[in-house]
Amino acid sequence: MKNDFSKGSVQRNIIAQSVPLLFAQLVQLLYNVVDRIYIGHLPDIGNMALTGIGLAFPLTSLIAAFTNLFGIGGVPLFSIARGAHKHGRAEHILTQSFMLLMVSSVFIGALCFIFREPVLYLFGASDESYIYADSYLKIYLIGTTFSMLSTGLNGFINAEGFPRIGMLTIFIGAALNLLLDPLFIFVFDMGIEGAAIATVISQAVSAAWVVCFFFGKKTLCRIRRKYLPPDISLIKKITALGLSGFIMQGTNCLVQGVCTHTLKEYGSDLYVGVMTVLNSVRDIFTLPIHSLSNGAQPVLGFNYGAGRYDRVRKGILFMSVVGVAYTVIAWIAVLLLPHAIVSVFTSDAEMLEAGAKALGLYFFGFCFMALQFAGQSAFTALGCTKRAIFFSLLRKAVIVVPLTMLLPMAGLGADGVFIAEPISNLLGGAACFITMWFSLYRRLPIENKPVEE
């Protein structure tokens, strides 16, 4: 069987999946981060334009949430089906996910476009910052289908054991975005609207690439017309597993909305811009641990489906140890170089000083984030839907949101918004990992299933 994850070193399989995924997601990150870097350094309007992009985050997170629900939710089922040598079922899962992404993207993009004005004001936009947020968002939403297809289907490419092709999916679009951003922003003098246009064009190219792959000859599993009609029982299973990622991103939408609203109330537009920088830095520093956990999921799922429980245990342990070690190093880097990190996104002295202080608060105890990733990934990979959903809700909805509203009221002001994050990492991450360790890791069968001839 091609790309059999039950053979060879588990650690090597995870690294082989994770490294190309890391480069792919690094390039994917450039879609948004490069936009913010260019926009943050625009003369005169950079800070307010950066604030505008920050106000758009909740709606872009909502789109990502539905991508996880219908796209990423199918990947564990797909991996388990491949591990069990059920090729037809794997193609059925892939095709149903494709159909769900296509249909949902049209409705989600339209709803976000229609209600963008009241939502932006709800999340803390002022009359001045709304102009920039609306200019970016109304163009960005045109590419909703492209964004959901390229991101949602790319996980299936990696699950087939083609991480390099998955990397190219993202690399092609992001490289194009890097070229188009300065062209539209500065040469054509389109500012924030130019950044949105460059992003939409790049996402369209990425979506075309990934769809062509699944209709081509190289793929192991194809999108089949006969599997397009909705299969309610399979849709329920896909969305059940996707609920974890949906809630993670959906609560990101909620948290970002509450954060921007609270920062506007206890601070100013400047602090909303600072949060935009912090979100960008967090995206960069969580990228390796995110790639590691995503790369481990198809390996864990395949071996679980193949009955190789010893390899599942090795994979979980490896993912956890490497994740904690990396996040400790990242935390030290933030403590030593806060001003240098923030200066990548802005040259404004006021935002630079406020951002450096907020960065130290926001990243305190960053290593506990790795525990959340490890526990969440293990639950998702092995189909433990209820536990994955519970811990998604616990860290964000139950811990972060209330703290974001209560700590500023307790006299901490805008700093309370930034302090809520490390508290949630400690409480939520520890609870998730400890539960995974005792309810999943230690309960895996001692004996492997007999190898099928």
Task: Outline the fold blueprint.
Blueprint: H1 10-40, H2 46-72, H3 74-83, H4 87-114, H5 116-122, H6 127-140, H7 144-159, H8 163-187, H9 191-214, H10 232-266, H11 269-305, H12 309-336, H13 338-342, H14 349-362, H15 368-381, H16 385-412, H17 415-439
Number of strands: 0
For the largest beta-sheet, the strand count, sense and barrel status come to: none
Structural class: mainly alpha
Shape, principal axes of CA atoms: globular
Structure overview:
The protein has helices at residues 10-40, 46-72, 74-83, 87-114, 116-122, 127-140, 144-159, 163-187, 191-214, 232-266, 269-305, 309-336, 338-342, 349-362, 368-381, 385-412, 415-439. It has one domain. The mean pLDDT is 88. Helix 2 packs across helix 6 (127-140), helix 11 runs antiparallel to helix 12 (309-336) and helix 16 packs antiparallel against helix 17 (415-439). The chain is an all-alpha fold.
What can be said about this structure in brief?
It contains 17 helices and no strands. By secondary structure, the chain is mainly α. The mean pLDDT is 88.
Summary tags:
mainly alpha; 81% helix; globular; 453 residues
